[in-house]
Structure formats: C-alpha cells, structure tokens
Amino acid sequence: MNDIAKALNLSASTVSKALSNSYEISEKTKKLVLEYAQANNYRPNLIAQSLKHGHSNSIGIVVANIDNHFFSQVINGIESIAYQEGYNVIFTQTHESYDLEVKNVTHLAHRSVDGLLISLSTETQNIEHLQKLQEQGLPIVFFDRVSDEMDTHKVIVDNFKGAYEATVHLIKSGYKNIAHITSTANTYVTRERLSGYTQALTDNGILINEQLIKYCELGGRDQNEIKGILNELLTNPVKPDAIFTAFDRITTVTLGLLHQLKIKIPQDIALLGFTNTVLADVLNPSLSTVYQPGFEMGQEATKMLISLIKTKQTVTDFETIVLPTQLFLRDSTGKK
C-alpha cells in the first residue's frame, strides 16, 4: 500500500480505504487506486488482515490421511459447508503420528485459523496441545476419533452398533470363530468397535477368544504388520473362519493379503469390515462392509465449528452428534 501511495502521491490511509471500497473515498480516487493495483499485481496481505480484523475466514483441518476413502468423503462434506459460508479450508495430515499432529495444530494456530476440526491420530493420548488452544479461545470440534478429556462439540458414528450388527451377521451366516483385527488399543473408536464385537459374541453364546483379537499398533499403515497378524491367526490352534476388520485401511489390506495367501473368500475365510471404499461392489469377491456417513459427518462438524466461531458468548453446553452406520452385505460373507 505504501508503494501505491507513493506512486499516486496519496496517503497510505487513503489507499487502504480505497482498496476497502470505503464511502469516505471518491469514486474517482477508488478507480485510480484499483487500476494501479491491478496493473501492478497488488495482493492484500491476508495474515495482516486477519490480525487487524481478528479473523481469517479460514478453518484448519487435521486428519490421518486424505487418501483414506472415509476421510476424503469427510473432507468433501467439510468443503461443501465451509465454502458456502465463506470460509477457506487448510488441510493437514498426521499419518497417524502424534508428533506430526502437534506440529500441524501449532502451524494452523500460527496461521490464525478461526477454528479447528480434528480427528485424532492413533498415537494420540495426550491432548494438552488442543486444551491449551481451546483455553486461549480457539474453537475446536472433534470428529470420528474423539477424546473424552475435552469438552467441545463432537461428531461420531455409532461404532458399537456398527460392529455389533456386523458380528451378528457373521454369526447368523454360520461363522463361529470370528477374528477381529483392529487398530491400536488406546483410541475411542477401537474400544467402541471392540465392545460391539465382544457383546455380539456374548449375546449369541460364543466365548470370547483373546487369541482371535489382534491390534495393529501402526493403525494399518504397515502392510507387514497386518501380514504378521494374519500369519498368527492362520497358525492359531483355533483357526478363524471369518475376520471382522475395524478400520478402512486394515480392511482393504487384509483383503489383498488373503488373496496373496491363496485363501478363498468366503469359502476358507469370510471377510467383513469397516470401509468406505467405492470399489466394494467390484472387488473380487465383492466386499461386505460397514459404511460410515463421512460426507454427512464433515457437514455436521463444520456447521458446529462455524456456530462456535460466530457466537459472541461463552459456550459451555456442548453436543455430541451420533450418526448411524450402514451394513452392506456382499459376496465376501456368503453363507458357510
């Protein structure tokens, strides 16, 4: 602005008001300033503007991986509301790393985002980095992977019911030795889906076999970890006749590894898992899945966050929205 002011022999204040279309500046001066700015490729400093006005009209997003089918659908839902409401979005990925999550959150805070939407990494147990920002006034909304240690709005799916219905389907289809491959044990989602699986077994008179429950400490991002788990299950004295997988990446990797091991699905082992892959119908065999409403989750979380950003009052009454899952039955869980 100082360069424009010097070139046009105007004050910096006049240039600033002209660029802001202020009523205090004549149309002739506005036209002069705007034409010069356009000719010289002037762009406003967004960071400076956010400091001046107290908002940046941007929202920070933290997810595990944007190439995950579920998270990509959540992101589409976030964008559909954010852009409609005049907000830009800044996406970051944790790759299931706690350290990277802390770095991303810190970076977004330094970018002066107006609010934060976050799905915790599988490594995250300490949320002090989020609690401090909330105490400083940054609106934060959790989705999918949430924490009970912080009071704020949250959007989740009915993880228990989704896992329960999936396991009951396998039992009703004739499978009795149902293995469960899930993520690291410390996450809310893992606990809820494990609880649904074990309750379904108990309600149908099947004893829980701890040797059939396997945890992926790396959250499914290491194929060799899942390969090792499958080898353990296949050499178990009680070999599974079905596998219920609890996360998107674990499900699709397990399907591929079973093919590599020449295991027929569902003749040798049935497979059913949480995944939002759009390829479920065309896989061989077509994959029975528990589907999460990712797009709707992104929309609801964004609406909640924008409501927090816009409110003039301190919010102490927070809501948790629980969205239903859908069970889609396909060839990978045919009758035993």
Provide tags for this entry.
single chain, 336 residues, alpha/beta, six-stranded mixed β-sheet, 12 strands
Textual characterization of the structure:
This protein has 336 residues and is of the alpha/beta class. Helices cover 43% and strands 16% of the residues. It contains twelve helices and twelve strands. The strands form two sheets. It has a six-stranded parallel sheet, sandwiched between helices. Helix 5 links the parallel strand 1 and strand 2. The radius of gyration is 25 Å and the shape is elongated. It starts with a helix and ends in an 8-residue tail after the last strand.
Summarize this entry quickly.
43% of the residues lie in helices and 16% in strands.
